[in-house]
Amino acid sequence: MKGIIEMKSDFLMQPPHPETEWSACTGYSESALPIERILDVAISDASICKGPDHTYYLTGTTDVSNIQVWTSTDLKSWKGPTNIWDLEQDGTWQKASKGPAGICSPEIHYVNGIFWITYGLKEGGTGLLQSLTASVLGPYRDLGKITDEGHDASLFKDDDGAVYWVYGNGQIARMTEDMTGLAESPRMVEVQPWKVAGREDHPSYSQNVQVGTYGAFLYKQDGYYYMFCADALARMGSNAVDTFVAVSESIYGPYSRRYLALPHGGQISLFSDVDNQLHASFSGCGSYSLVEHYPSIVPMSLVSHGFIRPREDVLLEKGGVGSLKPIADFPIRDPHISTGPDGTYYLTGTSDKPHHNFWDRNNQLHIWRSHDLKEWNHVAKVWDLSENGTWENNIYENPCLWAPEMIYLYDTFWITFSLQGGGTGMIKSITGLAEGPYIDMGRMTNTDIDSSLFQDEDGQVYFVWQDGKIAKMKKNMTGFAEDPRKLLCSDGQRVGYEGAFIVKYKGKYILGAAEWNGDKRVDGTYDLMYAVADELYGPYTLRRLAVPHGGHGTMFIDHDGRLMSTFFGNDRTAPFRTRPGIVALHVEEDEEGLCIVPYSE
Predict the structure, then answer these.
(1) What family is this (predicted)?
(2) 507 touches 489 (CB < 8 A)
(3) Measured distance CA(147)–CA(167) in Å, rounded
(4) What's the sign of the alpha-carbon dihedral 383, 386, 389, 393?
(5) Which of 304, 330, 393, 396 would bridge 389 by S-S if both were Cys, CB 3.0 to 4.6 A apart?
(6) Cα distance between residue 123 and residue 464, in whole Å
C-alpha cells in the first residue's frame, strides 16, 4: 500500500461527499458550451494522436473491414478519411478465425520516431502494425498477434524508454525491445475498493477490482500513472458507458480507488495540443451523450495530483438537465416550492445556516418568495431550533433541521421538517402569513426523515415521508388518523429510499422519491424516481426515472398548469451543486401510465 499512502491526495484517499464543487466531475460555469462532434461520421472508440509535425491523427472503429485515418492541424477541420490498412487485402492471421473477422478499436501511436497502429478483433485478440515510412499512411508491416484475448489495445512509453502493451480491463505488459511481442505475461491493474458506512464504490460491492470493463489507456504526468477504462455504471439508470480512472506512482500499482473521470466517454485516448492543453478524444456513449455515436474532443483539467476531470467550460449531457442553470445563488439542499393563496411561489429547503455547513448544527428554517419562478427574495428566518425548538432539543444535543416542505392548508401555512438522526415534526403559522410567527405542532414520527404533506381533491390531508410511508392526518392536524402504511411499486420495490412526496396531475397520483443509481454517494447519480397510480394507495406502476441528478427534489404545478420539479444537484456529474434549480417536465400518457421526463427545447 506504500504507493497509495505516498500520494497524499484527499480526493483519492478520502473521497468527499459528491456534492462538493471542488470534487465534482462536471464543474459549473455560467458560460459553458455544449461539446460538438468533430466529424459527421459515426465512429466508436475514437482515438487521436499528435504527430511530430503538430498534425493530429484521428482513427476509430468504422466499418470493421479497414483502418481509416483523418488529419487536422487545428482539431477543428478534419481531412479524410484515408484507408491505410485493409483487412481483406492486407490481413494475415486476422482472417484465420472461423467466424467473420472484423477490426475494432484501432489507435495511432507515435513512439520512437515511428507510427504504430494498435487494434483488436471483434472475435478476440489484439495486434500491431508498424509504418515502414515516416508517414502515418504507411505502408505498414504486420507484426502479428500480440495477445489471444482482448478487443482493443494501446501503447504506452514510460520515461525510461520501456514500451508497454495496454488493453482490455486494465491489462498491461512490457514489450520486447523490438516491439514484436510481450516480454512478460500481462497483469491486470487492481484498484482499491472504497467503502464507509452509507457510501461505497462499485468494486467494493461487486468484489471486482478492475478499473473498468474495456478500452484501457495509460497516461502519465508529474510522476503519476493514470489508467483509464470504460465501464457501464448505470448512472441515471441509463445506457451510458463512462470513463473511469485509477492512479498510481508505480506502473504496476498499487493503484488508488477508481473514480469517474469523463461522463459518457467510454473508451478514450488522451493527448496534448500544441499549447500543452490536455484533451480526451472519445465517441459519445449512451443516449444522454450530446454526441452519441460520434467523435468529439473534451479539454481536460488536472485539478490536483491524481485528480483529472473535464474542464468547467464544457457541457457533456443532453436533455433539460444537462444545461440547467441555478435560479438563485444561495446554498440549499432538498428544495421545495409551493403556491400561496395569492399565487405567490414559496421556496424552502435545507439551509446551511448558521455555520455555513449542511451537516453541522444547521438548525434554521428559511423561506424565499417569487412571483415568476425567476426572481427570488428572502422572506424570513421563520424557525430556529435554538430559539423555537421544544421536543427537538430534548432528543439531540445539537439538532440539524433538514428538508422542510411548505403547504397552504386551512387558511394558513404549515411546514414539515425532519432531523438529522431521524424524527419528523411540523410547525404552523398562527397569522396565515408565510413569515409567521409559527407554533410547534409537535413530533410526527419518532424515526425516519423527509416529510411532506399532500391534500387530495376531497380535502383530506396525508403525511408522506421517507421512502413512501403514508398516513391520513386528523382533521385538526395534531397527528395521524390511521396506522401508517408504505406505498410500493407493482413489483414490490420502493420508489426510492428517501425524499418521498405525492402530487396529483392529470387525474393521476405521482409518487416520487430519491434514489442513488450506480455507486452510492461516490460516483453514482442521485436521481428523482417516480411511480403512478389511479388511486392514492395504489397499485403503483413500476418506478421510472423522472429527473436525472434530481434526487430529493419535489414536483409542483405552476400557474400555467405545467408540472415542474425542484433541483439542487447532489452528485459528481450534476450540472451544479447545492443551488436551487427548476426543471420543466414533459408529461404524456403511455402504456405504463404517465411518462415524465425533463422538457427539452
Answers:
(1) Belongs to the glycosyl hydrolase 43 family.
(2) no
(3) 9
(4) positive
(5) 393
(6) 53
